[in-house]
Amino acid sequence: MNLDFSIIPGVMPALLAGARLTVELATIAVAIGLVIGSFVGIARVGHVRIVRLLAGAYVDFIRGTPLLVQLFLVYFGLPSLIGRPVPPFVAAIAAMGINSGAYVAEIVRAGIQAIDRGQTEAARSLGLTAAQTMRYVIFPQAIRRIIPPLGNEFIALLKDSSLVSVIALEELLRKGQVVITRTFRPFEVYTVIAILYLIMTLAISKLVSWSERKLKIVD
Which of 4, 108, 176, 194 is deepest in the core (most CB within 10 A)? Predict the structure, then answer.
């Protein structure tokens, strides 16, 4: 086998640009997912039946369908409803954010339910409303518990961002494909892409571990 990694320095700027876009996509999508997931997760443990059902339907639909299909719905399907095209970056962020929201909702729900019920009873006995109890007592403690699974969600979404290459958004994988058409060196380029993904995921893992230590999260 004739391997030639000497081409890598010349194409590395393009691959790093793709990696930067990959991180941007995952970061923005997780931020959107955290907002959506927080509200939906709280709704999932709320006392209003119709709200619980709607939140459950959202989670079940998103978790039960592939991200690729959701991406196609936003990028190809939504324009037929609104009468205008959706830019690839906007479509990617929307699809990934909505997808992340469903998984974050389950993480938030589990985090809330992990808090001892006695804390809710104590807060209510002090005169706090249900909303105040959730805002000031339960949710802040749940946040500390959900840091590790949120990190895992970030890593999963970072890797899943490669799917946006199908709508010609030039994240890391798409940049690599473009480079391969010029260099005809798929093994070398894909090897570097894999290493870049590994570096990014390891960096996120280290950041999550650092956050756990700073927050002194214990079992």
Answer: 108
Total number of domains constituting the chain: 1
Domain assignment of residue 179, given as a range: 5-215
pTM equals: 0.87
Task: Write the CA distances from 56 to 12, 61, 110, 111, 144, integer angstroms.
Answer: 44, 8, 14, 16, 24
- The CATH number for 106's domain is 1.10.3720.10
CA-based nearest residue to 134, from 149, 114, 112: 112
Which residue's structure tokens are 């992340």?
100
Q: 6-57, pLDDT tens digit by residue?
A: 999 999 999 999 999 999 999 999 999 999 999 999 999 888 899 999 999 9
CA dihedral 112, 100, 60, 211 (to 10 degrees): -30
